Amino acid sequence: MKLILLSGGSGSRLWPLSNDARSKQFLKVLENENQQFISMVQQVWGQLMQSNLSKDSYIATSQAQVEMMQSQVGPEVRLIIEPERRDTFPAIALAAAYLYSMEGISLNETIAILPVDPYVENHFFDTIKSLEAIIHHSEADLALIGVEPNYPSSKYGYIIPETGTHGSKQPYKRVSSFREKPSEAQAAELLTKQALWNCGVFAFKLGYLISLLEQLNLPIQYEELNKQYQVMPKISFDYQVVERAENIVVVPYSGYWKDLGTWNTLTEEMRNKQIGQGTISEDCINTHLINEIDVPVSIIGLSDVVVAASPDGILVSSKSASTRIKDYIKYNQAPKFEERKWGWVKILDDQVYEDNRCVTTKRVGIRAEENLSYRMHTYRDEVWTIVKGEGEFIQNGNYMKVKAGNILHIPTKTLHTLRANSDIEMIVVQSGIRSEENSLVELYHTWREISEICTKAL
């Protein structure tokens, strides 16, 4: 069995920490057994490794998330990269075409699909392992996992099994229908029918989806489907495939499962009520502070509240109202903080002047032993001030060692790179003309390539 983790979408539900460049699964607000802060994707990947599933797993993600994914789970993780975001059906179709035409996976192979951010116990992955045998035994087109609800929720979709399968000794039930996010009263009625929460996990044989792509006149070769990706319908796999299939089974799961998609649910799983600088007064009850900026935040006398601060903005919300955040964050601004495979970038200031000059000031961190690509900006000058660490700098083939206190001027169309011997931080001031889009040209990415081709000094 091959496992595809879906990692797509933007990060509006957990604004201001999440954004188009850093979706919710990358937020380091959970803690592992060593009391280190980890993200949802790091936690799930760790569980896959413990369950011996990681060696057969791939992550389907967008081009915008590649660097952050590699930074958090490692460069060796196999990625299937979408050229743009288009919803779950195109993403799964592209992954299936990749497995079939690029990896040579048999049409008889079972493929399981898993969101990259479920909050579950380790034995949840034992249920995932069972999907292969269930697909074979039931001869179903699709096998889903449904979570046994512990309360009537209006936040989740429901899987309704056939009445004749209640009490069956089989580990699965035949599916009768689906219900998307009912009211709480309707959900209570569904619970009497043994309905299950749809957790977005399902499996099928690869041949099933390849055949479906052929029926839709879509390419089954990865490279061709990748070229036509922009014209594929923006539709979920649930609507395009699951709800139209006739032969579906569901495997009930009775363990702990939670969707950490809102500040309300996420803070319930945080071990610490405060991350970052600030103070929460003792009379605050069920109040959380997550602060990523250098300015302290004080919360006094407020209960059932979440306060989140990042370079993108500040959120102050009651936890019950935090689900309405999408209605209030239409600021049309680019992300102010991004993780990269080599470190991170924080936008400190971004100004446009009357003469159409634009000046952007950034704080940039490069981890020890990591390096920037060998690159040049076609419409921007840069001035770097090294404020921490030591490294090796190459500009147009000229090599020099740099350390805290050095100031480097990089004119437009000048090839340059920097490798960190120890953790480096620097202030970057980038300037140019606003009407000219800043284009980055990258020639080489690894330090071995750069050192072999660009200089003989190393």
Overview of this structure, please?
- α3 (88-101) packs across α6 (206-215).
- This protein has helices spanning 40-50, 66-73, 88-101, 124-138, 184-191, 206-215, 222-227, 237-240, 263-268, 447-454; strands at 2-7, 30-31, 37-38, 57-62, 79-82, 110-115, 118-120, 142-147, 158-161, 173-179, 196-205, 248-253, 257-259, 274-275, 278-280, 288-291, 297-299, 305-310, 313-318, 337-340, 343-352, 357-366, 374-377, 380-388, 390-395, 398-403, 407-410, 416-420, 424-433, 440-444.
- The protein starts with a strand and ends with a helix.
- The protein folds into three domains: 2-259, Spore Coat Polysaccharide Biosynthesis Protein SpsA, Chain A, CATH 3.90.550.10; 272-328, no CATH class; 342-454, Jelly Rolls, CATH 2.60.120.
- It is built from ten helices and 30 strands.
- The radius of gyration is 25 Å and the shape is globular.
